[in-house]
Amino acid sequence: MTELSIQGLYKRYGAVEVLTDINLNVRSGEFTVFVGPSGCGKSTLLRMVCGLDEVSAGTLAIDGEIVNDVPPSKRGIAMVFQTYALYPHMTVAENMGYALKLAGEDKGLIAERVRRAAEILKIESYLDRKPRQLSGGQRQRVAIGRAIVREPKIFLFDEPLSNLDAALRVDMRMEFARLKERLGTTMIYVTHDQVEAMTLADKIVVMSEGRIEQVGSPLDLYRAPENRFVAGFIGSPKMNFMPVTGQGDGRLQVPGGTIDIPAEIDASRVVEVGIRPEHMQIGLADENTLRGNVMTAEHLGSDTFAYVEIEGLERPVMVRLDGEHTIQTGDPVDVGFATRSVHLFDSDGLALRRQKVSNAA
Amino acid sequence: MLDLSTTTAKVVFIGIALLIGFFLFFPVYWTLASSLKADAELYQITPTPWPKAPTLDHYRTALTEGQLPKLLGNSLLVSISSATFNATLATYAGYSFAKYRYFGRKPVMMFMLSAQMFPFGLLLITIYPMFVEWNLLDTRLGLILSYIVFALPVATYMIYSYFSQVPNELIEAARADGASDLRIFHTIVLPISIPPIVTVFLYSFMWSWNDLLYSLTLIVSDEKRTVAPGLLLTYLNETNADWGGAMAASLMAATPVVLGFMFLQRFFIQGVTAGAVK
Ligand SMILES: Nc1ncnc2c1ncn2[C@@H]1O[C@H](COP(=O)(O)OP(=O)(O)OP(=O)(O)O)[C@@H](O)[C@H]1O
Ligand SMILES: [Mg+2]
Fold it and tell me: Which residues cross the membrane (chain B) (predicted)?
């Protein structure tokens, strides 16, 4: 059983610190997703696990063995690159068999493993083609096939879907979900698309500016973000944030109204609150109510997104309603939401927790 | 913007192209025409625009009586060797400059390129005593080595620019697949780099093939003489000026380079790394 353990890992380029004190354990068979905005160091971390970038400080261990100085091919990992990096002069079959050929494996075995991988990915009929004769989606499959053939202990994927068009991306996402079921191997997957992260991951690692912000299951991160960054990053559409302008009687004053907070929380520490668009309602009284004007509404068919302007807020509050909802723009409305769906943040951007984790349901 | 679709624009454009073409090709045409004229016609006071009675006599004489076959053989030997040597050195050096980071990489490259800034004649003055010292004077090896001066700097730079375009991920993928550095270079990078290497080969072949100064100076004995100084000494010396023969021989001497470039064209068109990434 394979386990990846990262301890106190740093990456520096000269004076620039790209990764800071990364600590992470990935359990065997787990599908782990590194997610974060562009430039936060996801690829760098993945490349270090792969062995393409050197470790500046800290340790990387696979199955309890420290692999800091072990070359990539000896780590039992296989990486799928964002740009696929197929060898242009080799056929699909040669591309897939290259690693085994280098390892001196027997021709028959190589052919068999290539055939099996091709079958999984449904690329049997292209085995004799060159990469340039394939579409983007097919190249992607070949790149994955090249990794599968090696039968690695850990798969590493760096934004494998980012070069595909939207429709194909959804298909390939399901393909990954299927692959995960079928192979059951430990997989680490990098993306900056939080939808990919939410749908594929057993465990999400949210990163920002070279640090890990939070690690957890998709729903944990959605329900109980530990800080403002994670709260804003996970979930689509994004969480609405509001500054706290005052407090009294166990209620927080925010632009447009007041919010009830649980007694066990020290109201004076709360500087900002966050509420997800899907946890707000328009025109329905709830435990808390804000007053504002509907600025615009977007009708997407499945959903309606209402933008409510509230005095004292720079950005309108977004409310997600069901698709049939019709709303008049310009009218004053009440925006209602339950107290348990309110996220509270202190001056460091850290979430203030209730005793029981029972935020939004 | 210049609108190229109007008739006037087309006429002007074609006119300019024809003019440039005329300037470039007239000497070639004149060489060809002269080589086909009989001596009587060639030495008329008023030149004829094309041969009245074309004859292959000059070609026949050049091939049978002169030293042309031997000269061509010598040139071929020297040029192919020096082009191979240059292309090989340029390929390894260019790859190292493009894909490895080490101390002094940039200065070394600049130093190499700076060799190109000296007039070749000046460099010859330093090469000559060196060759005397090392007994390389009047040897084919010496001449081959001296041609490094012409082509290597630019060849290395050409290859370097190409290798800089080769995606690092391709190399990293091969490394992750377990290939050693040399293996990566030989089984991944080289096979996709044939076009630039052929280009560089032909580039340095052309330099050595067309060279007059170095070959005239560094080679003394007749049996090692290459084609450019050979033609000069045979056809246009103090005692005679056989223009017809010189023209025929020059054309035949130019053929390998022309053929080489025709062959090379196919390579320029190909997308080299097509399908590797994206
Ligand atoms: N060789 C290098 N030298 C200096 N800085 C580097 C180098 N490679 C990467 N960086 C820096 O490290 C940071 C992290 O880069 P990385 O490629 O890991 O980001 P990423 O999270 O994968 O972003 P993206 O989503 O855009 O792919 C970036 O700020 C980048 O500028
Ligand atoms: Mg990246």
Answer: 12-32, 76-98, 110-131, 143-163, 184-206, 243-264
